[in-house]
Amino acid sequence: MTRLLVPLDGSAEALAVIGPALRIARTLQVPLELMTVHDPVRGEWAADIDEVAAGIAYEHVEVSVVGTGWAGDVIVGLVADQPGTVVCMATHNRDRLTRMVVGSVTEHVLHHAAAPLLMVGPGHLPEPEDSGYDRALVCLDGGPRDEFAIAVAECWARQLKLELELVHVTESSGVDGATARLSRIAERLQESGRAAAATVLTGTHPAQRLTELMAERPKTLAVLASHGRVGLSRIVLGSVSSKVLQASPLPLLLTRAP
Question: Do you know which Pfam families this protein is assigned to (predicted)?
Answer without folding.
Answer: Usp
